[in-house]
Amino acid sequence: MKKKPLILVTNDDGISAPGIRALIAVMKQIGEVVVVAPDSPQSATGHSITINNTLFINKVTMDGDIEQEYSCSGTPVDSVKVAVHEILKCKPDLCVSGINHGSNSSINVIYSGTMSAAVEAGMEGIPAIGFSLSDYDWNADFEPTKTFIKKIALEVLKNGLPEGVILNVNFPKLKESEIKGIKICRQAKAVWEERFDKRTNPQGKDYYWLTGEFINKDNGEDTDEWALAHGYVSIVPVQFDLTAYHAIQQLNNWKLNNT
Amino acid sequence: MKKKPLILVTNDDGISAPGIRALIAVMKQIGEVVVVAPDSPQSATGHSITINNTLFINKVTMDGDIEQEYSCSGTPVDSVKVAVHEILKCKPDLCVSGINHGSNSSINVIYSGTMSAAVEAGMEGIPAIGFSLSDYDWNADFEPTKTFIKKIALEVLKNGLPEGVILNVNFPKLKESEIKGIKICRQAKAVWEERFDKRTNPQGKDYYWLTGEFINKDNGEDTDEWALAHGYVSIVPVQFDLTAYHAIQQLNNWKLNNT
User: Fold this and answer.
1) Is B2 a residue whose pLDDT tops 80?
2) Answer CATH for B6-188+219-252 from 3.40.50.300, 1.20.1250.20, 3.40.1210.10, 3.40.190.10
3) Which residues of chain A neighbour B254 with C-beta distances below 8 Å?
4) A6-188+220-252: CATH superfamily
5) Does the model's ipTM exceed the 0.90 cut?
6) For an engineered disulfide with B86, which of A155, A196, B181, B221 has Cβ 3.0 to 4.6 Å away?
7) CB pairs under 8 A between A and B
């Protein structure tokens, strides 16, 4: 009998978030699951790692079926590093991150702890997928995502992923019967228009909360934003080679070495 | 007389780091400088932003010549957002980040607070450059970088940058006379091979320090690692559209919508 694939599960909302529990439930159907996830919410920590502080790892038993479940005091990326190099001491067959409580489509990918964990696994050469649901509610309904997650994970286990590529999967907030299918997309061009909510603390000192509005600047029907708005699950293949190859020739024309 | 360009200076080593003071000194020669930088070291914070905590902004006077200098309690990316949307309430003509104490070449770009600040400015449509010196010493000699920084900044102010492109500039640890010139490069394929340094605290609990070794897996002569090792200043054009376009067709062959 073929050995079950070893699957590392992580997230950025913290190990007790309903989203990761839903993801664990699906992964238990297809492989041997190891969970290593932050012990507290780590949304929007991007690709942050802990180099100026210590890391604590605790064995936990949130899911009685899983032999190896650990919380980590660091970021999502720390959790992946700890899992691979300290806990497993080997590379799992798959790393899945999420299910994030909230969208990681378009430009959100760059702020996302969920996606950064998946990207870190991809950098290690591990096939990796980040899953996010466009619903920020802690009690969001993750049931409609499960069939799709299983299908996508099985395809990745079967086919592998191109070198240097990670999948960013986003779900619309819909019932399963309302979801039209899966679309492979590009990242939509979008921005956050920030606003700072200024307040005064009891000591009379001003402080700020970061807030803002998401603005989609891209009507392309091949984008993740279009897919999500039209009832599809979006998959964007993401890479960590950030080189803007198309700009190299233009910069070479600048004659920067003339004196 | 043409108005002097408005230049936003930030970094990730904190507002008092020698690296940012060197960068400010160069920028004062070419424009009106506004400084908004983290009040404490924020290395390796990547594209982290502060959404679960408050932000404090303090006007400081570290450089008597500069009217607008502020420290921010958040990350490098927070500092850029605060600068543009709360302090300036307009977009500067240029944003420069650094000079980082340590290399941000190859895969380091993805962990780097210095580069994430520049990328955030780029996302706002501001021409942006991150500068880093391959020397982690707090008392590193930044003098050899200054002529190059001035030249690169003036070229960006003159030509602008292609849409969605930010420059990642790295300097070798050499005397100015030893530097052979500037090379436009691609990001070398490299990884960090992590190791966790396990220790025990006075209460008997295990904790870890993240450590590791940088492994360059790419001998290409068009890479930033090659340029730096051969005495050149490297410039990699960096983008924040993370879509792996080359993988889209392959994923479309997966028939994910078959039932």
Assistant:
1) no
2) 3.40.1210.10
3) 155, 159
4) Survival protein SurE-like phosphatase/nucleotidase (3.40.1210.10)
5) yes
6) A196
7) 224
- Please answer whether residues A100 and A137 qualify as being in contact, where contact means their C-beta atoms are separated by less than 8 angstroms: no
pLDDT confidence bin for A121, thresholds 50/70/90? very high
Nearest CA in chain A to B163: A247
What does the DSSP 8-state code read for residue A237? Answer: E
Work out the number of other CB atoms within 10 angstroms of the CB of residue B5: 17
Write the residue in A44, A47, A207 that is nearest to B56 by C-beta.
A207
Residue ranges of A for the binding site for a divalent metal cation? Answer: 12-13, 43, 100
Q: What is the DSSP letter of A164?
A: T
Of all residues in chain A, the one with the smallest CA distance to B166 is A244
Calculate the alpha carbon distances from B205 to A37, A52, A56, A87, B208 in Å.
19, 19, 9, 17, 10
Region A72-79: mean pLDDT is: 96
Q: What is the C-alpha separation between B247 and A187, in angstroms, rounded?
A: 13
> What's the whole-number mean pLDDT along residues A115-138?
97
Chain B environment of A182 (Cβ under 8 Å) = 256-257
- Measured between CA atoms, the residue of chain B closest to residue A158 is B254
- Give yes or no for residue B148 having a pLDDT over 60: yes
Give yes or no for a contact between A208 and A158, defined as CB atoms under 8 angstroms apart. no
- The answer to whether A115 touches A98, Cβ cutoff 8 Å, is no
Q: At A84, give phi and psi (nearest 5°).
A: -75, -45
Strand, helix or coil for residue B39: coil
3-class SS at A101?
Answer: strand
Domains of chain B, residue spans: 6-188+219-252
